[in-house]
Amino acid sequence: MKIKILFLSLFAVAVLASCKKDDFNYPAGTVGISKIINFPTIAIKGDRLFIINQGTTYTDPGVTAILAGAPTQYTTSATVSTSQGGVYNLVYTASNPEGYKATDWRTVVVIGSNAAGNDFSGTYLRAATGVTSTWTKTAPGVYNVENPGGAVAGAGLNVIAVNYSGTSITIPKQDSPDFGIVSSASESYTTAPPATYKWIFFAIGYGTGLRTFVK
Predict the structure, then answer these.
(1) Which CATH superfamily is domain 41-111 in?
(2) Measured CA distances, 116 to 85, 119, 140, 142 (Å)
(3) What span, in angstroms and rounded, lies between the C-alpha atoms of 196 and 64?
(4) What's the pLDDT tens digit per position in 21-54?
(5) What is the DSSP string of the chain?
(6) Distance between CA atoms of 204 and 12, rounded to whole angstroms?
(7) Report field, pTM of the whole predicted structure over 0.90
């Protein structure tokens, strides 16, 4: 009889223990023993590529930076000066207290007065492939460049290139509808006949070789 009573007592304790509600009243910022980490998000406002003339005013549209559902501060990698031609690759960064970061980017091109009068329009041959690339001027210092890589597969595909100072040229970082994210490096342009330019064209599938084009 004592054994039976003892068994019933232990059973009652077990039932009561199983019916005890979990305590979800955790300290703020935690779940149990785990700390809640909120990650920042960031997205630019306005266009990815701005092209303006020397001496004009540039007002950055900024970004939307959010942390834990509320606006948060962010930093910008550079400031834009319009006193002369130049290319500014802006990177915006938002962080959380744990050091995790979110970034977004924008390119601002200032067309210098010493480049605005140039006209690099025309068709250029890349001898390495026997394929041409065509430049069409759309504004002072601004060109639509068809087939910027001089590749057979690039015919009819376009990017924006700029002549931002003197004879300095570049494909400013941009999100091209035809190529995706593109840019260039190691650029040069010489006007002495025949006009010649060189650049490394950064796009998916194009490698990192220097490409030469002659008018």
Answers:
(1) Immunoglobulins (2.60.40.10)
(2) 10, 8, 5, 8
(3) 42
(4) 555 555 555 555 567 899 999 999 999 999 999 9
(5) -HHHHHHHHHHHHHHHHHHSPP---PPTTEETTEEP-PPPEEEE-S-SEEEEETTS------EEEEETTEE---EES-----SS-EEEEEEEEEE-TT--EEEEEEEEEEE-TTTTT----EEEEETTTTEEEEEEEEETTEEEEESTT--GGGTT-EEEEEEEETTEEE--SEEETTTEEEEEEEEEEE-SSSPEEEEEEESTT--S-EEEEE-
(6) 69
(7) no
- Tell which phi-psi region holds residue 111, choosing left (phi > 0), alpha (psi between -120 and 50) or beta: beta
Query: 131-146: string of b/e by CB count within 10 Å (b at 16+)?
Result: bbbbbeeeebbbbbbb
Residue with tokens 């990017």: 159
Q: pLDDT digits over 57-107, tens only?
A: 999 999 999 999 999 999 999 999 999 999 999 999 999 999 999 999 999
Which residues touch 209 (CB under 8 Å, ≥6 apart)?
200
Decide: 78 and 86 in contact? Cβ < 8 Å: no
Domain boundaries, the chain: 41-111, 122-214
Length of the chain: 215
